[in-house]
Design goal:
The chain is of the alpha/beta class and 453 residues long. It contains 16 helices and 16 strands. Helices cover 40% and strands 18% of the residues. The chain is globular and about 65 Å long. Bound molecules: zinc ion.
Length: 453
């Protein structure tokens, strides 16, 4: 499902719209490669830096070589004469968002994420293709968000598809070393790993400096996963599926999560999407975002969605019970000071890339997070996770000098209304500025290429 043709189209479109991407050269502060050297200045903008809950009114932000080089009151900042000036008075500038649970089922989805202001992605079912994609994006050979990728799923049971089967201690040891050598950023664990194998995976992963992320293996159980300091549990529903479904245990689970130092992707939108498909499948296919998905992905949604399950009634009942449980859990985790991360599971059935990221932000506000707390899950918390577990030199998630210039220019204040974050007038990724109209043109090109397939 990896189409080079559409990417070639996209590449050509971008070059004609935004000018050629210049190769990097030597600079004083470790430059990004493949980024534009021309400075861009956001003049007179209200900065939402996301380092704390504040707005810096009437500031000017200067970007060069893909990095933020100055942030200060407009009166004190001199805009370089060669800079492209963006008059941003009355607008708001915030960091691009990170979606920490994606499945890139085709490369064109990178554009959908950008169009929705998602500038960092964590693929949670990696393949060699994702490792290569990560390198090409980082080198500026491809235009798109910054990518991190976990290993393929490690699971018990017989091997099937791209799942790595780990049923013995020996297989577990070999698997961890292999995933490390293959260049993955994390080890993804799944439902049917035994406690014996899980213990070895966790110990080996620590040795290899690979964070363990993903599900809660059912026979291991959530308490034991938390005692093992698994880096990330994705999704919140894992607590419901692997622990007692008794809400009175939520407070204790939240405390144990904090003590374990485990981060959590609540992924409420995942449950919501399942319930929506059960109620109105055709409504999902009629969604305006559907035309930006490749025909292969849409065909996949037709054949693997909740309505096709053999246990559909049981599943529906389970999801309806899981939803309020995960809502209450999410708020308890936030109150306990657990690091929550924004994530969606897109583009599994019913979850549109980028659009789902914003639906999840609204879900988080609905459960009781403030807009600042909700936006933190996709900005400062995201970089905190990467710095702790993957790359201590990561620089995104806040607006500050030295950070990678992944920025959203918004018409209103997202700290007052989180919905503003999905109304970007323009998106900057690695210093490359694209207006909403330019992004839309690129998406239309990609959609019409799909329509002809
Ligand atoms: Zn997933």
């Amino acid at each position: 499902m990896k189409t080079l043709r559409a990417w070639a189209l996209l590449g050509a479109g971008l070059l004609s719209l935004a000018g050629a991407l210049l190769p990097g050269c030597a600079h004083e502060v470790q430059p990004l490669t493949g980024v534009s050297e021309r400075a861009v200045a956001f003049v007179g903008v209200n900065v939402v830096p996301m380092d704390s809950e504040r707005v810096l009114a009437d500031h000017t932000v200067i970007v060069r070589n893909g990095l933020i080089t100055s942030v200060g009151p407009s009166a004190e900042i001199t805009v370089p004469p060669d800079a492209e000036r963006i008059d941003a008075r009355g607008r708001y500038l915030m960091p691009g968002l990170a979606d920490f649970h994606v499945h890139l089922h085709s490369d064109e989805q990178l554009l959908s994420y950008l169009a929705h202001g998602v500038t960092t992605l964590f693929e949670l079912d990696g393949s060699p293709h994702h490792v290569q994609l990560r390198q090409e994006l980082a080198a500026g050979q491809r235009f798109g968000p910054t990518l991190y990728t976990s290993s393929p799923l490690l699971d018990g049971g017989p091997p099937g598809g791209k799942v790595v089967s780990v049923t013995t201690p020996e297989q577990a040891r070999i698997a961890v070393v292999r995933q490390k050598l293959a260049g993955y950023d994390a080890l993804k664990v799944y439902d049917n790993i035994t406690p014996e194998v899980y213990a070895i995976l966790v110990a080996m992963a620590r040795q290899q400096h690979l964070p363990v992320v993903g599900h809660v293996p059912r026979t291991v159980g959530v308490e034991s996963v938390l005692r093992s300091h698994q880096a990330l549990i994705s999704h919140g529903e894992e607590y419901f599926l692997s622990a007692s479904r008794d809400e009175s245990r939520i407070a204790a689970l939240a405390r144990a999560t904090k003590e374990g130092g485990t981060s959590v992707v609540p992924d409420l939108v995942h449950i919501h999407a399942a319930l929506r498909m059960l109620k109105d499948l055709e409504g999902v296919f009629a969604d305006p975002e559907a035309r930006y998905l490749s025909p292969e992905v849409l065909r996949n949604w037709r054949y693997s969605n909740p309505t096709r399950r053999v246990d559909v009634a049981e599943f529906a009942e389970r999801e309806r019970a899981a939803y309020p449980f995960v809502q209450h859990l999410t708020l308890a985790l936030q109150k306990e000071g657990v690091r929550l991360l924004l994530g969606t599971n897109a583009s599994d059935a019913g979850l549109f890339p980028g659009r789902s990221t914003h639906l999840e932000l609204s879900e988080l506000v609905e459960v009781g997070l403030t807009p600042y707390e909700a936006l933190s899950t996709g900005t400062r918390n995201a970089v905190g996770f990467i710095k702790e577990h993957v790359d201590p030199t990561a620089r995104f998630g806040t607006v500050a000098v030295g950070q990678r210039a992944d920025l959203l220019l918004l018409p209103g204040n997202p700290l007052e209304d989180v919905g503003q974050a999905d109304r970007a007038l323009g998106v900057m990724v690695r210093g490359q500025w694209l207006t909403r109209e330019q992004l839309q043109k690129l998406r239309e090109k990609s959609a019409s290429a799909f329509a002809q397939r």
